[in-house]
Amino acid sequence: MKILYVVHQFLPRHVAGTEIYAYHLARAMRKRGHDARVFHVEWKEGAPPYELEEKDYREVPCFEAHPGDWPETFRETYMNPRMEELFRKVLDTFRPDLVHIQHLANHSMGYLDELKERKIPVVYTLHEYLLMCPGGGRLIRSGLELCPGPSPEACARCTREGGLPPPERGSWEEAVALRKEEITARLAGVDLFISPSRYLKGRFVRAGWIPEEKILASDNGFPVEIFRKVPRREHSFFHVGYIGTMVEHKGVHVLIEACRGIREEGILCSIHGDLDVVPEYGERLRKMERPDWVRLMGAYDHERVGEILAGLDAAVVPSLWVENSPLTIHEAFLAGVPLLVSDMGGMAELVSEGRGGLRFRTGDPADLREKILLLARDRDLLARLRETIPPVKGIDEDARDMEARYRRLAS
Prior knowledge:
Layout: E1 2-6, H1 17-31, E2 35-41, E3 51-57, E4 60-66, H2 81-94, E5 98-101, H3 111-117, E6 122-125, E7 140-141, E8 145-146, H4 152-161, H5 172-187, E9 192-195, H6 198-206, E10 215-217, H7 225-228, E11 238-243, H8 252-260, E12 267-272, H9 279-287, E13 294-298, H10 305-309, E14 314-317, H11 327-334, E15 339-342, H12 345-350, E16 357-360, H13 365-377, H14 379-387, H15 395-410
Parallel strand pairs: 1-2, 1-5, 2-4, 5-6, 6-9, 9-10, 11-12, 11-14, 12-13, 14-15, 15-16
Antiparallel strand pairs: 3-4, 7-8
């Protein structure tokens, strides 16, 4: 089969869960004998506006689109005719049997019209809330307030305050209402939605955006080989750490605040991530008062994630938004590392209390501090948590299951 994966951005410049999963799934499908390619966006300085470039990333061929500028109107953030023209070029060049959408930020919902007209089956993986949340897809409002669900008034406020381009006409309330109408109409053309967590599936079903019978709850698959090769490193101190993207909604500052109140010796905290992804937030973290045993390690090569995790006794996922199925949790499980996670969403689904880790109250440094000290003082508890780590689906198993779905849809 010829399979096209559509993702908002891609490796090596953008290293996060959706991009990594899209790469490994495409690579696994190529190993199974399919012609799998990726279509993604890259904001490339100096490139001609709306240029399309073909390239390879580690054995996976890619179509890379270079938008020349930011959309001029709010509607163009989700319905972009110029991106639709590039998409048609990709379809004409590659002629896929099936398209699997991983993320449509930077793209256009109009792709679904084109696929429907060409009778090309569509699979859509819901990695977060972009379809229902025009303010960034994370269902958080200004001040990191959790959003209970989209509403015309709240969405209008978020989009108006979020620096998005203005509506073509009418009020912001009318613009976000039109967005919902246009998106839900096009979602009817998707053959199968996949949600990596039961929690995320429930949010979309309860909100009335997607019928329950069209969403399959099935976790992503992950490469396991990089973890099998790396032996654990034992040490006399307690080593806790964070690995991931350095943005405010990931809550890295909560971890630093938690550590700031610890006076005990024999604890090391290492924080791995590129501090320049969002320079303002990176500078805020650099300036935060912290003990000398809390170390900002900077950017890392994702190929080294197994090696980094092999030196941790526990990993922390302090996210302030309702995560779906975080990459870090699965990677920690593959490395045999227990977790401390925020107590909501897909994080709480993956780490039930006492099974693979512990939960702490979201955004509460004092509660996180208590959990860090509990594990640092009780090595027997740490060992028991390690023994209860659940199995993780491998990418080869995921690709096999996905192949069966693709064949059913294509036939």
